[in-house]
Amino acid sequence: MPSLSAARYGKDNVRVYKVHRDEKTGVHTVTEMTVCALVEGDIETSYTKADNSVVVATDSIKNTIYIKAKEFPVNPPELFAAKLGQHFLDKYAHLSVAHIDIKVHRWTRMVIDGEPHPHSFWRDGEETRNVSADISREGITIRSGIRDLTVLKSTGSAFHGFVRDEFTTLPEVWDRIMSTDVDSTWTWKKFNNLAEVEEGVERFNKTYETARNIVFKVFAIDDSASVQATMYRMCEQILEAAPEVDKVAFSLPNKHYFEIDLSWHKGIKNTGKDAEVYMPFPGPNGLIKCEVSRS
Ligand SMILES: O=c1[nH]c(=O)c2[nH]c(=O)[nH]c2[nH]1
To answer: Which CATH number covers residue 229?
Structure first.
């Protein structure tokens, strides 16, 4: 006899833009985000008995996202996610969990003739700030993070001493290019309720800035023995800087840049110390993951 073992539903890819206009200065601040809101609860009969009386339509969920974006601040996204999720639980007694995912897209203020422009912005990369919040009647779990922050260093990375056997062709290297798309997530200690999220709400922007700076700094200055060793250092430093964070995870593709032997053409030297022209390799790529928790 089959039974429904898990179910959640809602609206995905809800695009939201919000502008704040400072009436005194005329300076605008804009936020663009993509929201996914899914709910769980006593909704089993909608699947098993075609009973729509328990269904808050996904269209209504989408409308709610726009209404709450108007009513509440959308910054920091962690707060908006928690308040939006709490609304679904407060409004509908039969719902037990709201899962709110928010991706914040970059709109960086233009600098024109050396001055920050009051209402013009540009997309400086595909990097996003991400939040994933699970709001239940028992408490609120929030994960914050960075995705698709593409970085490269042209030296200061090595990879040697790895297993060598009959499957190995990779030469050891003491100097290589290192590049990745940073995907980092830090999980906050569980909040008991919305009031705890709201109290000390500045923690979210502060930790986002700190974590992003740590990613840049460790990536740049670490004399990297491997992607594994470098990402572990990033985790350690983020945990040290953010006492309210319980664990930090990274997922990093190792985007390979291969040397090209050009000696077939007039004996050109383009390998080892002479390497200047490389082939950025589309794939396959390494994929290295870790999660570091506070002990
Ligand atoms: O930093 C690295 N870690 C690996 O596990 C690995 N494997 C590989 O082929 N190159 C690399 N580089």
So the answer is: 3.10.270.10
pLDDT in tens, 229-276: 999 999 999 999 999 999 999 999 999 999 999 999 999 999 999 999
pTM: 0.96
Verify that 156 and 270 share a domain, yes or no: yes
Range of the domain at 239: 146-186+195-295
Q: Is 256 a catalytic residue?
A: yes
Separation of CA 28 from chain center: 25
ipTM of the complex in this document: 0.99
Binding residues for O2: 254
| Chain-centroid distance, C-alpha 237 | 18
Together in a domain, 213 and 104: no
For every residue of 180-249, DSSP letters joined together read EEEEEEEEEPPBSSHHHHHTTTHHHHHHHHHHHHHHHHHHHH--BS-HHHHHHHHHHHHHHH-TTEEEEE
Q: What is the mean pLDDT of the chain?
A: 98
Ligand 1 proximal residues by C-beta, below 6 Å: 159, 170, 226-228, 254, 286, 288
Rounded distance from Cα 170 to ligand 1 centre (Å):
9
Residue 58 bears catalytic tag: yes
For the stretch 92-143, pLDDT in tens is 999 999 999 999 999 999 999 999 999 999 999 999 999 999 999 999 999 9
Question: In the listed set 137, 155, 175, which residue is the last one of a domain according to the structure?
Answer: 137
Q: Check the CA dihedral 79-193-64-245 and report its sign.
A: positive
155 and 287 assigned to the same domain:
yes
**Are residues 24 and 165 located together in one domain of the fold?**
no
Distance 220 CA to ligand 1 centre (A): 18
**Atom number in ligand 1 closest to CA 224:** 1
State the catalytic residue, choosing from 29, 45, 58, 210: 58
Q: How far is the CA of 295 from the centre of ligand 1 (A)?
A: 27
Shared domain check, 174 and 44: no
State whether 108 and 73 are in the same domain: yes
